[in-house]
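Researcher: Sequence recovery benchmark, item below. Answer with residues only.
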């Protein structure tokens, strides 16, 4: 079997492009590094205003949302139960504390997760699967 690293090869022209972590944390375009990835709170812009990279060509999907729901929900639940057991605060303290914290964590997490997946797709030249043309009969 031939050693095929095609799944992990990075674009050869990736010099000067932001890394996945910086693209995820700051919403940077994976091609030019400009802060043009988002058009709203967690919605991608149609294209980069600096280099015209078409963001709509990437399919990030709902992976970050499902993952964040589980992870952030579990963390907030554990912290809320710990707070209740340790200090027994009134209910309004839980509402004032956990609703904004959960909202901010989900919004930041969605932006970071979607940015990271888009940057990975760009750097790995990922796309929809295609079947090779069938061999031609002589």
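Model:
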């Amino acid at each position: 079997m031939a050693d095929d690293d095609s799944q992990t090869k990075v674009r050869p022209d990736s010099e000067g492009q932001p890394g996945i972590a910086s693209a995820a944390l700051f919403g940077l375009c994976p091609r030019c590094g400009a802060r043009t990835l988002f058009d709203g709170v967690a919605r991608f812009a149609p294209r980069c205003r600096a280099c015209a990279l078409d963001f709509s060509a990437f399919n990030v999907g709902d992976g970050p949302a499902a993952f964040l729901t589980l992870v952030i929900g579990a963390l907030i639940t554990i912290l809320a139960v710990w707070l209740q057991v340790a200090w027994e605060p009134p209910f309004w303290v839980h509402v004032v504390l956990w609703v904004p914290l959960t909202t901010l964590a989900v919004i930041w997490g969605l932006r970071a997760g979607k940015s990271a997946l888009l940057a990975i797709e760009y750097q790995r030249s990922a796309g929809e699967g295609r079947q090779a043309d069938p061999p031609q009969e002589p």
